[in-house]
Amino acid sequence: MRILFLTFYFPPDLSAGSFRAKALADALVEEGSDIQLDVVTTEPNRYRSHKPELGQNNDQRYTVTRIPLPEQRYGVSGQTRAFGSFAASAIRSLPSDNYDIVVATSSRLMTACLGAFVAKRMRAKLYLDVRDIFVETVDDVFTSSWMRPAKWVFGLAERWVLGQASRVNLVSKGFLPYFESRYTRTDYRFFTNGIDEEFLGFIPSEPDRSQSSSEKRYTILYAGNIGDGQGLEHILPSLAVKLRDRAHFVVIGDGGALPRLNAAIKRMDAPVTLYGAMPRSKLAAEYAQADVLFLHLNNLPAFSRVLPSKLFEYAATGKPILAGVEGYAKSFIADQVKGAETFSPCNSNEAEAALNRLALKTYDRRDFVSRYARTEIMNAMAADIIDLKVESDV
């Protein structure tokens, strides 16, 4: 059985999509010795501050074809140019008709469109992994009238892709109402994000509270993407100023909104230290030094459906979590994550009150870690993908 896997990000790139793609690729080849897997992706391009060396694929069980992109540019025009280059090169490099299944994992709709186009051309089954609702996000983030024609086109593209897919996985159950209200299919899967092996063995440490709060400020850490979806510039500087005498904020990451965040920090003279994106081998040590882990989604309707992948990584550390989220993520945290307090996004007063409710200690989340181990989730998803071929042979 031949499977083609299309993903815009793949290790050593640092992103939720990259880590998920690698885990799924590993799980697919574990499903059987008769599986030939070809991964088509890009050269590392996620962050300007992270330029990893690109060596040979160290997993000989499948091939990885990497397509070079133009110099990284943030914004709509830069992303459009990058994806256009990826799609054109991917189509040129592929054979015409020798894959049984095409898998596409997509937060940006265009990777899903590429998967649908290739699957149709090859008469292959399409398995679509939806990690974000691109159309709704674009509608919320880009409100200018000049974007209306593009939004209309994106809506048509989404409808076409959903119609082409043999199976659709939704990373968040919060996405379901959106898709149910627009499409007639009822066979959605829900293989969520999870905890990678690097964090399954994380040994939490108790924060050092031997000194009084007047003598030692505790550390609140944010690690991850800095983009429109996170909206950190709307909350983090003002919250850091409010907590100046109690806490110091550390931000590790990169993204299109970093200049706005940096400007807000300087304007407000906020006690925040910024570091560039770093590999997870180093990130674990930063988690160990933190007293509280910070999570935030922007105050836009689309993000009320999202379940941030970072939440799973944070939870595995046993550290207290302060999360500015609404909707599905808020209810998920309340139901399943001990030692986490939530507040309304972009509301620094609520954030301070939530922090006051949060006990600064280590939390036992072993049940959560066991339930959301990435390997187990991806093994189940890989079996569901392989079942497409079995189903078509019956």
Can you walk me through this structure?
- This protein is α/β, with parallel strands linked by helices and 394 residues long.
- It has a 6-stranded parallel sheet with strand order 3-2-1-4-5-6, sandwiched between helices. Strands 9-8-7-10-11-12 form a 6-stranded parallel sheet, sandwiched between helices.
- 44% of the residues are buried.
- The radius of gyration is 21 Å and the shape is globular.
- Helices cover 41% and strands 17% of the residues.
- It is built from 15 helices and 12 strands.
User: What is the total tally of β strands?
Assistant: 12
Radius of gyration: 21 Å
Percentage of residues in DSSP E strands: 15-25%
Distance between the termini: 15 Å
| Largest sheet, strands/sense/barrel | 6 strands, parallel
Going across the major beta sheet, what is the strand order?
3-2-1-4-5-6
- Residue-averaged pLDDT, rounded? 87
Shape: globular
Helix and strand pattern? EHEEHEHEHHEHHEHEHEHEHEHEHHH
Q: What's the assembly state of these chains?
A: single chain
Helix and strand composition category: alpha/beta
Can you tell me the residue ranges where pLDDT is under 50 for at least 5 consecutive residues? Answer: none
Q: Treating each run of at least 4 consecutive H or I residues as one helix, how many helices? A: 15
> What is the helical fraction, as a range of percent?
40-55%
